[in-house]
Structures
1.
Amino acid sequence: MLLAVCGAALDIGYRRLRGAVRSVQKYPALYIADLGSAGIALAVALLLRYGFTELSARPETASVLLWSGAQYLAICAFIFPLSGLYSRNWKYGSISDLLIILRAVLLTSLLLISLLFFSTRLIDMPRTVVPMQSLLLIAFLAAARLSFRAEEITQTRPGFKNGRSKGAGDDHRVPLLLVGAGDAAELYLRALARDPNATHVPVACLDKNADQLGMSLRGVPIAGRIEDFEQVVAELQQLDKRPRHVVFTEAPANFGETASDELLRSAERLGIAVSRLSQMTELRRAKGDNPYELRSIELTDLLERPQAALDREAIARLVRGRRVLITGAGGSIGSELTSQVAACEPAEIVLVDNTEYNLYAIDMTLNETFPEVSRWSYLCSVRRSQRVEEIFERHRPELVFHAAALKHVPMVQLNPREGVLTNVIGTMNVANAAKKFGTLAMVQVSTDKVVNSTSVMGATKRLAELYCQALDLHGLETGKGPRFMTVRFGNVLGSSGSLIPLFERQLARGGPLTVTDPCMTRFFMTIREAVELTLQASAYGFEKQLGQGEIFVLDMGEPVKIIDIARRMIRLAGFTPDKEIKIKIIGCRPGEKLYEELFDETDKRITSPVPGVLGAVPEPIPLPTLRHAFARLQRHAERGNDAAVVAVMRELLPRYEHEAGNMKPSAVKKRAWVPPKKSSKAGVSQRRPAYHKSARGGLPLPDN
């Protein structure tokens, strides 16, 4: 064992020494300059200690300098490479890299003192020389490395060139006014300064923090707050630097929706274009994209909240090297989910969708952006259990994301049997196949429509939640089987058939924009954020075995009025709401509620350790009861008996309030909304749900 330890230590030392030699070969001139700096620092320190007169009167000092200098240069020649002084590109050095210089100087100084102590007992070397020499050497080494960034000296003032001020009229570049003076703005300014072909030049910054006023960011003055936009533009115009472009360096919602809206209206009135930077921290970004690309402000930017902290390593660990199957892969959520999963290097992706074009589109997207990822595409309806099992048996997926569903409330309300066959029976088929063929985890995408359901769509998705919960609890009791996790969230902006595409079509026709009710509110989230939080919740749930028998509920912030969204869309299109473009109130549609909620009356709310995610525990229904009821649902749906279908759903969901699809909009009941109660950690139950005997059935039995 001793020989093995010594051998390992020698091997590590050899590799470290070889790496140091290679690093010196990359920077030979810097290495020689550093050794010269060490000798000069020692000589200057002696000169400062004695002075010219006393030094000339002490001829023995020359021999001390030669002897100590030779020892010190030998020490530096060995220690400098091992300290990592040449193992990094100093063109991109930062303040934190100064610690490497401090470490190298400290080590060499300590070794010099040790050698001189054992050889001369420090008789001829004054004690003050070593500290002075160390300080001088630190300055010399830092100066040598700062020379790698000497070109930035001419880049500190992007608005000046060749020593004279250039106004907006003299420069071919577009003057920019940046909104935000944080880290993203600093990175953007640095990128602009290094780009000789930059087409934009920043002239000023606005920030939400009043303490920043009067300061500058990489030479660009912070001229005011966001509320001072028009005043700052007027002042810049007097200096012949009127901005032609405003750039949000962060999501506009981070500066406050009111302030962002007002700035957009002012910019529109002044004829100034508005854009925002693409975010560098997005989980998925197409290859070759410019991380500093400017893009137009969209409604999703105004509604987007500050991003919840994402544990990207946990997400990567969940997906990397595993076989992943995604149902509904060509849909709005499914396609974003597919792209983000592909970015995490899975072993293969199995795409399942019932719509040919959607499947073709996502397959082509993966082929263009992630060609190295193995993929398989299947046209398949999740209603067909035999076909689903055939795909599972062929690929044996380790992770399953179930996003296939009928989701449009009015359509499912008119066709309840179809909603049952896809949302209930389809989920059961996928979950059963996952259990049968050894899947590690299945994640079901759910919706806030399940809460206190008044629609067939919400009721069917609620039954799907309960089935996955029952399977998850069954696995907890038996100690075997996959994890079954459900992630619930509200509306996503930009999905097919959703609000934004409808408003865009109506705007293209010149209006009016149709809103069902002035008081109608919804929870909104961008597709990207919803998918990222879904992956994070799944990663935590699987890796740390969290949320067994629970529903992961994404924190979607405060609900937003639909009529406010309509007005913002009109303003972003360059029109005046209620004047140039009208808003028409058309009344609620069958199955719709005025207010959506994230927690059902019967849900037990709990705390969740996952950032951006809440927890809910529905009252469970035993697995045998669900299977027996689902068999009846499938039989009635296939026979076309809508009344019997609704009757069975009401047996399972006593609080479900069914509203017939042929009701007139004016007759739709407006369900009152009660704001959810805020719970403290102390008052939230942390117990895992357990099955209870009830009128709906006995205790769950093992699978056959």
2.
Amino acid sequence: MNQVTYLRIYRIVSMAIRFYVQVALFQRRNRGKWTPVVEQRWNELVTRQAKEYKELALKLGGLMIKLGQFLSTRADIMPPSFLAELEGLTDRVPSVPRKDIVEVLEQEWNVEHGNYLDELSDQAIASASIGEVFKGRLKNGTEVAVKVQRPGTDRIIRADFQAMRIVIWLAKKFTPFTKQVDFDQLYVEMTETIGAELNFVRELQNGRAFADRFAEMNGVHIPVYYDEYTTRRVLVMEWIEGARITDISFIEEHGLNRHEISERLFILFLEQVLYGGQFHADPHGGNILLKPDGTIVLIDFGMIGTISERDSQAILLIAEGILFKNYEQVLDGLEDLRFLLPNADRDLLADAVERLVAAYESNELMQMDSFVVERLLKDMQDIVRTQPVQLPAEFAFFGRATSIFVGVLHVLDPKVDLFALARPRVLEWASTKREGKGIFGKEDVFRWILNSTGPARAFPKKLINFLDEPERIRHYLENKEGREREHQRNLQSRMFAGIFSLVSFSGISLSVWFWHEPFLWVSSVFFVGSLWAFRAIR
């Protein structure tokens, strides 16, 4: 039943509408009285919603799981209790019968699978919503991994994208999330990035590109792919004997150095970012394997993102700014990356970045039971939600990939110092960038002088900001509360008008179907009235 197109769309959209209505009613009932008790009830509500979403995602599979994984990294728009419930949502679904997989193989190869394979495992080695992986052996004795697209995947993903279009339209009309997210561009990014997973030939091409790019990196291996057996729905690649990189018992059993592995893995990811081009958009533990000799193997290149050369230069500004404590430069880089809108409060945001970096450097962020750290992270989330900060759609999957990757690093080495690992590589990269220009430009020399003297120059400003902070925060919060109250009133009114429009439109459809003329007139009047109200409310 979960593969019936209209049923999937109905279940996804109805859940989204129910969530929107629950949130709007809760905010309406508790407007102006946000107490600890109300906050507890709010957390209970969003936790129930997250559990419902997770349960449906595991039942439906497809795009729902990948969207849940994406939402679990969006602390800027999702409540913390929602994020905590979705954390760890994995793309694991029950295997389909082997005979169905064999049928797909033979459809794609146009011959019996025994013509190419001497053996094919009875059970899937790995199973996800898009493909299943079996172990096989070619006629020449080579052991291979055979990835086969699950039957009906194309239809399921198309249905999910149709449902997402409706959900996104509802989110644009009835929620404040449009402040942080360009939903139209995000939808395009989702279709291009996730849709590419449906074509295994594309995955082969991506894997080959990564193999060429990191051929000289010691301790890193990209599997060999076999063109002659690969089609749009079948991928054949080298079989790798190893374990997930987060398998600590495997690491200890083979006497491997966790710190050295985490450092090498970090450099592998940093190289993808600093030098632009493609990056692995799904670097979870299952897609990063570890061989007994410590070699890191990167697999599954279905989800690939791209960083342009222009954005790579902006990342340089941010990296230099953080390393040299020049937080104005960090904001310049964020503006170049289109994260900040023109009317952002730069002083407030610079202070937030500085506090976060200081907390990380002092290891406070590792003490997750610390009240100070919890307050700091809550302040960061509040600032991101209330300031004109947006996530450009092209960075949606980069943010998700970074979050997943950092999680893997901390499993490997809980005490890993990302700044210490990044500093020499960033400086080397910056030097390479400038050597590529031939000589240092005047603006480069000037910026490096400013950066080098950053901490000394920043002290007077920090002292003034410290003295002015209480008044500045009070003024900011007063203005924020007024804007939020007015925005919420308008948003809720538009939401109820929109819902009434949908209900009355359904009434029109039913009355036409059953040809009930009185009900048709009544529904039409209500439909026109609710549309007028929706357009009138701003």
